[in-house]
Amino acid sequence: MSSLFLIFLLCITMATAAQLRSGFYSETCPEAESVVRQVMKNALIREPRSVASVMRFQFHDCFVNGCDASLLLDDTATMLGEKDALSNINSLRSFEVIDEAKEALERVCPGVVSCADIIIIAARDAVALTGGPFWEVRLGRLDSLSAKQEDSNEIMPSPRSNASSLIDLFHNYNLSVKDLVALSGSHSIGQARCFSVMFRLYNQSGTGQPDPAIEPKYREKLDRLCPSNVDQNVTGDLDATPRIFDNQYFKDLVAGRGFLNSDQTLFTFTKTRKFVELFSKDQSEFFKAFVTGMLKMGDLQRDQPGEIRRNCRAINGRHMNRLWESGRERIVI
Ligand code: HEM
């Protein structure tokens, strides 16, 4: 990562609690959280995986210029959005669930609830609805006026990442080693494509060999799922209980049954291993650390103008744009 880019990352700071707060919509849209919750419940029934897919949005939105729903913007004639960035293309899915929540909210309290906040509420609900912890979310974000595909390309980690580079990346956001391991526990739900694991099975680090960290029986299973000539969009489960948010993911890592290289590396690397072991033995420790991590990640913001989008896929028309140039001030620490 270039040093210029590191400086840029450092411009993303933790917002102070005074700006984002729980109960932010209690006067202006008291139904906000229950409306999103209902949409997430319906999504879960319709397609269980979709809630995991939506939960992933928080990571891919917040790491790229803060939690501002820049991720949700479609391309325009003059702007390449983040949806087609390297880590997102053919991978991020279930954007329609956020659209549904936004449409429902616009009916109840038009122009009030930001898309950035919808992502945060929906991610929390995805976890709670699949058996994980519930927490009070801090709200009051604004939606960005643009998106930056090249920033997403530069920032978002590859499934090939090792623990050491992940530690460095998370450190840039004030997220600790424990936060990294706990947040990776989000892979307790959902799926990944063969595309994200093929190199581990057939050519780990250019050796022409599989990753020796994969437990042999699990490797046979992955070989069957993803033979070398497979359609790389075929998907496999990220842990043994992909519809339940629990600590099975960490038990799997201890057993050498992590799907992604970036997962298994958390057990092979000494600095992260102790947290994998802790969370594999104590689910409540995992839940506590996960909530801490999600709150910290949800506080990432850049000092930039924003608005409440009417449609999460596009910025508002200039004529109806409610722009806060620096109206709701951000205190940058
Ligand atoms: C630590 C670095 C991380 C890396 C390298 C990483 C990478 C990946 C990759 C490669 C996939 C599968 C993509 C595909 O094959 O299409 C995936 C899926 C997923 N990721 Fe991560 N991830 C990381 C952290 C996180 C975090 C912090 C969260 C949320 C808090 C998250 C939530 C998810 C979820 C829920 C899925 C499954 C989505 C679905 O089923 O559609 N990930 N991740």
Automatic annotation (TrEMBL):
UniProt binding sites for Ca(2+) 1: 61, 64, 66, 68, 70, 82
Binding site for substrate: 157
Cofactor(s) the protein requires to work: Ca(2+); heme b
Pfam families assigned to the protein according to its UniProt record, in alphabetical order: peroxidase
Record site: Transition state stabilizer: 56
Compartments where located: Secreted
Family: Belongs to the peroxidase family. Ascorbate peroxidase subfamily.
Name of the protein: Peroxidase
Organism: Juglans regia (English walnut)
